[in-house]
Amino acid sequence: xxxxxxxxxxxxxxxxxxxxxxxxxxxxxxxxxxxxxxxxxxxxxxxxxxxxxxxxxxxxxxxxxxxxxxxxxxxxxxxxxxxxxxxxxxxxxxxxxxxxxxxxxxxxxxxxxxxxxxxxxxxxxxxxxxxxxxxxxxxxxxxxxxxxxxxxxxxxxxxxxxxxxxxxxxxxxxxxxxxxxxxxxxxxxxxxxxxxxxxxxxxxxxxxxxxxxxxxxxxxxxxxxxxxxxxxxxxxxxxxxxxxxxxxxxxxxxxxxxxxxxxxxxxxxxxxxxxxxxx
Length: 279
What we know:
This protein is an alpha/beta fold. The chain has eleven helices and seven strands.
């Protein structure tokens, strides 16, 4: 009997929490760009009783993502995919933000659509920043961002770094594109009898999230957190819980949508409790 395989892409704080939440009783494949950081995490999980395989992947390369999907399918039935790899404005320049957070999502959705098992499900970690993009995305641009094949999208002026002067705005755009990409992918995944959704976290207590608290947008980020209904950072376990729900049977009628898990940050902006443009 073929083993059930859970694929977790990204070995950061959220990826690690998700791997532990999903990994019991299945074959777990964890992939990341950083091989040196990957193996110690996998070894600790093996010590704790998890069955873990590892792979190095560059999500900005279709060939690399295709090889990862092939590896996952060779291990068994790929029933769950969690794509958590991403970079923030404090971590990377604009070209890398667009490559990882837009094209990386496109390649993962396309390549894993061909190996996901019937009844399977996937989740892409986007960001509530995607709901805060200050620009206007026309219906045609939204269609192209969501539906252009990844290789065509890579050549599109829509994802040219020259369009952006500010890393934070590029990040907001990239995460909005990721949300659109997931929405558009629901049909292709549905043809396999599978579901695909995204989760948009707020500021989470990870190295990436904590970097935002002391970065160039420190005042904005801290003000936003203070204005939310919950009034705190989120935990990686809370994101893992949301991922577990969207990948499980209790969400069998949910696909092609985005679940905001941000303690009420987007709600604070939408209702005027917080104005990100205020001085």
